[in-house]
Design a protein that fits this description.
It is built from 9 helices and 6 strands; from the N terminus they run H-E-H-E-H-E-H-E-H-E-H-H-E-H-H. By secondary structure, the protein is of the alpha/beta class. The strands form 2 sheets. A 4-stranded mixed sheet has the order 3-5-4-6, with helices on both faces. It has a two-stranded parallel sheet with strand order 1-2. It starts with 5 loop residues before the first helix and ends with a helix.
Length: about 230
């Protein structure tokens, strides 16, 4: 439901990076999003039922694999992620030393910082990831990411990607997988409409679900490594 923002977000990408292909995954919006996408002539997929954040991302990943893309840069449609940072992802990836790049709001002095409770949750999961993997990520819940085709293929082939909230749990899996993950500073802006995926009781569900997912991943570590070597 980003009818108010989608045109501006995609125009900024097109104006700054005309050489890049854009795909908008419309997760069964109930506003006028699908009509705006059609009117603008944007490449898009309209899901016939709401799959959730993870399901929408997985749809984009499958599209990328089917069309043989080498990398995907994923970003939100609400205007929080700044398209100007896309060049930073590409430049870093072209150095040839990474598989996944996370855009961290906490490494940029110009970035909007979320509310205190959100920061607390991010910090907790950052520490959990560090304890489990030995690697520190300042913003493990960021949705502004670059992934290469091998990572996406691993997600899809092993049916590991959750339909709701893929965050710190996926980072742990990729660390077990031996993938190279780095962070770069990005600018994030405050959501103009103050909308969030984590409203109402959703934060409680998110925390419980994420903790359970991480526990299951730790318990399944040997099995995951077996899949990796297969």
């Amino acid at each position: 439901n980003e009818a108010k923002n989608i045109a501006e977000v995609t125009k900024k990408i097109e104006d700054n990076y005309p050489e890049l292909d854009i795909l908008v995954v419309n997760d069964s919006s109930t506003d006028k999003t699908k009509y705006i996408l059609k009117e603008l002539g944007l490449n898009h997929i309209n899901l016939i039922s709401n799959l959730g954040y993870g399901g929408a991302l997985e749809t984009g990943y499958k599209y990328a694999l089917y069309h043989d893309y080498d990398i995907v840069i994923q970003m939100d449609a609400d205007g929080q992620h700044d398209p100007k940072n896309i060049k930073d992802f590409i430049c870093e990836y072209q150095k040839g030393n990474t598989d996944v790049i996370l855009g961290s709001r906490f490494l940029s002095s110009k970035s909007y910082k979320p509310p205190l409770m959100r920061i607390l949750g991010i910090t907790i999961f950052s520490q959990i990831v560090k304890v489990v993997t030995g690697k520190k990520f300042t913003d493990p819940t960021t949705g502004f990411q670059l992934l290469n085709a091998s990572v996406i293929k691993y997600y899809i082939d092993n049916k590991l990607f959750p339909q709701d909230y893929p965050d710190a749990d996926m980072l742990i899996i990729l660390c077990y997988y031996g993938k190279r993950i780095i962070e770069i500073p990005v600018s994030m802006h405050k959501n103009k409409d103050n909308k969030t995926m984590h409203s109402g009781l959703k934060p409680i569900y998110y925390v419980i679900k994420m903790l359970m997912s991480i526990i299951m991943i730790i318990l399944s570590r040997k099995e995951l490594k077996g899949k990796i070597h297969d």
